[in-house]
């Protein structure tokens, strides 16, 4: 899970007009030119993921019932994917969604048409909060290669509580042109024209502003069942005249939120998993029930009771009575999958005999000797053409088996990390070191394989808050982040191995923030920021973290930036006042320099050009790009750059020339990925309309050893790296 892109909460509004084809070909001709400084042309690039493997919450997996080897996966912030069984890999389907559509990278639900295998539908919308835009439905007639889009008048919540429940989108089993969409706060929507237009449909239950509304839609023969998470009757179904509460459904302690449902067509049984909360968090009780849809008889088939809920649920299409269900929030005993071959009369825990192989994604060991079976297990599916091919999602990966014993990540091609920091070292074995949400720091010796050392250990941290390298001593790297056994660490071998700081300020455990190291690696500056944005006094160390002293003159909450040439110089930008602060005594004290600069947004960023003293660049989002060549005493706005959200540097086009500039920004057109080889006088667009990845305003950097290569951080599609085609 990632937080919404900072500063983007009020940007997206539902697009107006008719649905349009949105998967466009790559740019191969010059784009609109701004004229003079800032003129932009297009340069063809090849884009790929720096491989980590998964890293995010897989919220749903859907096998097509009529096509062998075809499946789809949805994620909470990283879009949707199509599985190819022949290559054992996933293909991303929503990378074409651009900057203004960042809220559509969360997939609330998926649907396939059993009678028309080429058709695929996605319901998109990451947040249902007032600051987020409305949702949309994408429809494809070529399995997601191209799309047409219909904007909705309601909001969806793919990264909110309940995101791991069943599919809220369904093709009506009686009519392929009819689709149903269950929403969280706006009842039931219906389309009678294969997803082109949508309108409210009668539904007997009324959603609340804070509840879950409809948690899933499932077909059982020609009947549609709906889960309901706002109290009252938890399960409803269609009749000849409308909807009704299903008679005899579990009452009393078992009447909880219905999380998933699966229909066994061979035995005509509907299975439903329940929990006392929609999940994936805060579940402490749950159950599983079976409905005989012919007789109307309900049976409690709960495998085991305890302080946890039940989540994912799937039936074997080729073997009647075979069903698999997942526990959720079973922390002490660790979550498991229970499998039954007799309709729920007896169960076997698959975890108990499981052999996990995470060779392909070693970070899943979480710094320990062996991986865990999983948590947040709400996505679960049995391949309808292979009874022993089962997949289940966790908060970080998708495990699969072909024999019910050996399990391995089935994640190739699927990358969902939220990227916070990127360093491309000027020397050494690694071309990339990354700081990520949830899974800490990665050391990439190869971009095409998950780092063999996994998460940076000693200590293991969760979300990274800071990552810095000494410009004149690149073997020295420091990092900070959220962790239970220390919040800061250093490396003397370029990030390959780590050791914790000998000490840390007391505030570090509750507000770890960004940090910097002087050019020679002898001084550390650590800024502290609480998760709610509250800044605390920064601290300084001159003995590699053995002791720390407060720096009262450092602006609270600011990000420290080291001068890449002069070890005595540091910089900090006070985004609240629009003031640049500088230190010339190795961070012991800071004084104000330029003032009256863009202010009011904590995501404004300062970057220092490599190999130069006092050459600073300020990315001020929609207030443009600004530059100082005198250590922050004066800034001037860069002509021809309308917006700048993140900026970094790479190898110069010519020996001794100015470093290549890369940014997520805009000249006079939309926000895109840009490169300049002439000190920002002109720019070229290096991504295309098929490669946009939603919000990309956190971090970007070039490679100091390979001209033209760029590394781009996304908020849910991992690390993208591009090379000139």
Please provide a written account of the structure.
Keywords: Carbohydrate metabolism, Glycosidase, Hydrolase, Polysaccharide degradation, Signal. Residues 1-33 form the signal peptide. Belongs to the glycosyl hydrolase 74 family. GO terms for molecular function: hydrolase activity, acting on glycosyl bonds. One of its GO terms (biological process) is polysaccharide catabolic process. With 725 residues, this protein is an all-beta fold. It has two domains: 53-409, YVTN repeat-like/Quinoprotein amine dehydrogenase (Methylamine Dehydrogenase, Chain H); 419-724, YVTN repeat-like/Quinoprotein amine dehydrogenase (Methylamine Dehydrogenase, Chain H, 7 Propeller). The chain is 0% helix and 37% strand. It contains no helices and 57 strands. The strands form 14 sheets. It has a five-stranded mixed sheet, with no helix packed on it. A hairpin with a 5-residue loop joins strand 52 and strand 53. The radius of gyration is 26 Å and the shape is elongated.
């Amino acid at each position: 899970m990632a937080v919404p892109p900072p500063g983007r909460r009020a940007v997206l509004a539902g697009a107006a007009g008719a649905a349009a084809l949105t998967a466009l070909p790559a740019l191969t001709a010059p784009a609109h030119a701004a004229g003079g400084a800032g003129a932009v042309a297009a340069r063809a690039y090849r884009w790929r993921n720096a491989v980590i493997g998964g890293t995010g919450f897989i919220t749903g997996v859907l096998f097509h019932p009529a096509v062998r080897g075809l499946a789809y996966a949805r994620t909470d912030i990283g879009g949707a994917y199509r599985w190819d069984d022949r290559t054992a890999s996933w293909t991303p389907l929503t990378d074409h969604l651009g900057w203004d559509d960042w809220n559509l990278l969360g997939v609330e639900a998926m649907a396939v048409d059993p009678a028309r295998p080429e058709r695929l539908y996605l319901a998109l919308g990451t947040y249902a909060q007032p600051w987020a835009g409305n949702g949309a439905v994408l429809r494809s007639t070529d399995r997601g290669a191209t799309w047409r889009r219909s904007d909705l008048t309601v909001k969806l919540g793919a990264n909110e509580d309940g995101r791991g429940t069943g599919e809220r989108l369904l093709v009506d089993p009686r009519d392929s042109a009819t689709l149903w969409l269950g929403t969280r706060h706006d009842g039931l929507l219906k389309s009678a024209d294969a997803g082109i237009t949508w309108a409210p449909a009668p539904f007997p239950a009324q959603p609340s502003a804070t509840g879950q509304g409809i948690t899933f839609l499932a077909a059982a023969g020609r009947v549609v069942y709906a889960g309901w998470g706002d109290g009252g009757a938890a399960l409803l179904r269609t009749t000849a005249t409308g909807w009704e509460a299903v008679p005899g459904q579990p009452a009393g302690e078992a009447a909880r939120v219905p999380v998933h449902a699966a229909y066994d067509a061979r035995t005509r049984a509907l299975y439903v998993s329940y929990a006392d909360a929609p999940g994936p968090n805060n579940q402490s009780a749950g159950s599983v029930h079976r409905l005989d849809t012919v007789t109307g008889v309900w049976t409690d088939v709960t495998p085991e009771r305890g302080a946890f809920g039940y989540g994912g649920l799937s039936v074997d299409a080729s073997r009647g009575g075979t069903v698999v269900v997942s526990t959720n929030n079973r922390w002490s005993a660790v979550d498991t999958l229970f499998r039954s071959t007799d309709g729920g009369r007896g169960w076997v825990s698959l975890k108990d005999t499981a052999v996990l192989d995470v060779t392909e994604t070693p970070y899943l060991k979480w710094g320990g000797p062996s991986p865990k079976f999983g948590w947040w297990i709400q996505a679960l599916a049995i391949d309808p053409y292979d009874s022993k091919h089962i997949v289940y999602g966790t908060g970080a990966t998708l495990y699969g088996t072909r024999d019910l014993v050996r399990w391995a990540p089935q994640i190739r091609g699927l990358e969902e990390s939220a990227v916070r920091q990127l360093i491309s070292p000027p020397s050494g074995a690694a071309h990339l070191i990354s700081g990520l949400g949830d899974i800490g720091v990665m050391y990439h010796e190869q971009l095409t394989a998950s780092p063999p050392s996994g998460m940076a250990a000693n200590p293991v941290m969760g979300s990274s808050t800071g990552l810095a390298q000494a410009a004149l001593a690149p073997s020295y790297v420091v990092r900070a982040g959220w962790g239970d056994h220390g919040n800061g660490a250093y490396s003397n071998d370029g990030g390959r191995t780590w050791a914790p700081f000998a000490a840390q300020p007391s505030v570090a455990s509750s507000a770890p923030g960004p940090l910097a190291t002087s050019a020679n690696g002898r001084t550390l500056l650590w800024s502290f920021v609480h998760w709610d944005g509250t800044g605390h006094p920064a601290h300084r160390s001159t003995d590699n973290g053995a002791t720390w002293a407060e720096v009262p003159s450092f602006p609270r909450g600011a990000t420290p930036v080291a001068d890449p040439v002069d070890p005595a110089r540091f910089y900090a930008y006070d985004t609240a006042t629009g003031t640049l602060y500088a230190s010339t005594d190795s961070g012991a004290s800071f004084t104000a320099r330029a003032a009256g600069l863009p202010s009011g947004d904590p995501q404004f960023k300062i970057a220092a050009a490599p190999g130069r003293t006092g050459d600073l660049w300020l990315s001020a989002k929609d207030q443009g790009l600004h530059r100082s060549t005198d250590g922050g005493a004066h800034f001037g706005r860069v002509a021809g750059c309308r917006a700048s959200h993140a900026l970094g540097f790479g190898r110069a086009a010519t020996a001794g020339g100015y470093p290549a500039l890369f940014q997520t920004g805009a000249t006079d057109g939309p926000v895109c990925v840009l490169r300049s080889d002439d000190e920002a006088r002109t720019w070229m667009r290096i991504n295309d309309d098929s490669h946009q990845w939603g919000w990309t305003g956190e971090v970007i950097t070039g490679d100091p050893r390979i001209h033209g290569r760029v590394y781009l951080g996304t908020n849910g599609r991992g690390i993208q790296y591009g090379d000139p085609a």
